[in-house]
Design brief:
The complex is a heterodimer of chains A (291) and B (111).
Chain A (H helix, E strand, L loop, with lengths): L8 H5 L2 H4 L4 H11 L5 H9 L2 H11 L13 H8 L1 H16 L10 H21 L6 H9 L2 H9 L1 H14 L3 H9 L3 H11 L4 H9 L10 H16 L15 H7 L6 H20 L7
Helix pairs in contact in A: 3-4, 3-7, 4-6, 5-17, 6-7, 7-9, 8-9, 8-15, 8-17, 9-14, 10-11, 10-13, 11-12, 13-14, 14-15, 15-16
Chain B lengths: L1 E2 L13 E2 L5 E3 L7 H9 L4 E2 L4 H8 L10 H14 L8 H18 L1
Antiparallel strand pairs in B: 1-4, 2-3
The chains are: A mainly alpha (291), B mainly alpha (111).
Protein name (chain A): HDOD domain-containing protein
InterPro entries (chain A): HD/PDEase_dom, HDIG_dom, HDOD, RNase_Y/CdgJ
Chain lengths: 291, 111
């Protein structure tokens, strides 16, 4: 296959980042959080203006994922208990899920796409817990967003994507390798470029960009490693699908660095299965949020 | 290395047990009791080294698959996993374990 030199990662995200932009709401929220004089009440007020989002955040906060004993029924409570940055991260995940709609079904089934992403997010969050990481929601969000570059590609170059999907099915090739061969970059890089355009912090954008090539990350290698393995778990469990039909190859160096015992894996799988259904129902919010 | 689920009281540690941050919980030579197991769990210790060859050998064979699963379904699930994991080394400890879990999970769900 010949590489087309006029296609670059930047070109891919050029208009996509403006056409498919994050809602104004997210930048307002970020601004309020970063402002030294805003209170929890101010932040809660901004979130509460979006009723759909409010309902989904509360549903998520009350799901077994968080394991709080008391019921969280206001955004103020959620912000206080879960933390401001965590609520922002959850709001980000939910906002992005609404941004990409109307991609043809023959390219990707959006429901399956987000299911794969949610499973990856859950696995990343659980792995991070086992590694005693703090601020767990960034792992969850990175998992939700890890394949977002594919959506950009489906919007921008649908014919090439279709060709790649068919090529992979026919020859049994790994999709991210085929992308790299055909375009010179893969969906991970495109996703990271989009998140940077959206001004998403590098602690999320970098691991998304390196989840198939963990050696490239310089600032957040642990996050990248966790995301890499979480993606593998989601593929192994066959939850949802984002286009890839095989379990991506495990980077053995990443496994060494994570220092996870293989004895932990049965527990991990059990925990992903136990929290998956309720997380999906919280994130999809009952309404038709998947199209 | 023995998984804590496979430990029994009376086993003797052949190496210090430390938590994730490296703090020692129990020194080599200590005899294990039920109380230690809950302490290990509390501090996230999943495996320890104990003295005696017989015990180590025993844990090297993977835990037997559940008897109730139909062998035909299991074989089908196994074949499916081999296809899915084609780009991975089936002898790598993490991949091996993941394939085992997923085979069993898939077969159970198909039943």
């Amino acid at each position: 296959m010949l590489r087309k030199p006029q296609l670059s990662v930047e070109h891919m995200v050029d208009d996509v980042s403006t056409i498919h932009s994050l809602p104004l709401f997210y930048s307002q929220l970020s601004e309020a959080i970063d402002h030294p004089r805003s209170s929890i009440g101010d932040i809660a007020k901004i979130i509460a203006e979006d009723q759909g989002l409010t309902a989904r955040i509360l549903k998520l906060a009350n799901s077994p994922l968080f394991g709080y004993f008391s019921k969280i029924d206001t955004i103020t409570q959620a912000v206080t208990i879960i933390g401001v940055l965590q609520v922002r991260d959850l709001a980000l995940a939910l906002s992005v899920m609404d941004v990409f709609k109307g991609i043809p079904e023959d390219l990707v089934n959006m429901e399956q796409f987000w299911k794969h992403s949610i499973a990856t997010g859950l696995a990343a969050r659980l792995l991070a817990t086992s590694q005693r990481e703090s601020n767990l929601e960034r792992f969850f969000v990175a998992g939700i967003l890890h394949d977002v570059g594919r959506l950009v590609m489906y919007v921008k170059v649908p014919e090439i994507c279709l060709e790649l999907l068919e090529h992979c099915r026919a020859t049994g090739t790994l999709l991210h390798r085929a992308e790299r061969e055909r375009l010179g970059f893969d969906h991970a890089e495109v996703g990271s470029a989009l998140l940077k355009r959206w001004k998403i912090p590098p602690r999320v954008a970098e691991p998304v960009g390196t989840h198939h090539d963990c050696g490239k990350g310089d600032q957040y290698p642990r996050e990248g490693a966790i995301l890499h393995f979480a993606d593998l778990i989601a593929h192994a469990l066959q939850i949802g699908n984002s286009g890839e039909i095989f379990v991506p190859e495990l980077d053995h160096g990443v496994w060494e660095r994570l220092q996870i015992s293989s004895f932990y894996l049965p527990t991990l799988v059990k925990q992903v299965d136990a929290t998956y259904e309720q997380t999906v129902s919280a994130l999809f919010g009952g309404e038709d949020a998947t199209r | 290395m023995v998984h804590i689920d496979n430990l029994t009281p009376g086993m003797v540690l052949s190496r210090n047990v430390c938590d994730r941050s490296g703090r020692m919980l129990l020194p080599a030579g200590a005899e294990l009791t039920e109380k230690h197991f809950s302490i290990f769990r509390m501090w996230g210790v999943l495996e320890v080294e104990v003295a005696g060859d017989a015990i180590v050998e025993e844990t090297e064979t993977p835990p037997p698959l559940s008897q109730e699963i139909d062998p035909a379904l299991l074989a089908q699930a196994r074949a499916e996993m081999e296809r899915l994991f084609i780009y991975n080394d089936p002898e790598h400890p993490a991949i091996k374990e993941l394939m085992r879990i997923c085979t069993e999970r898939r077969a159970t769900r198909a039943a």
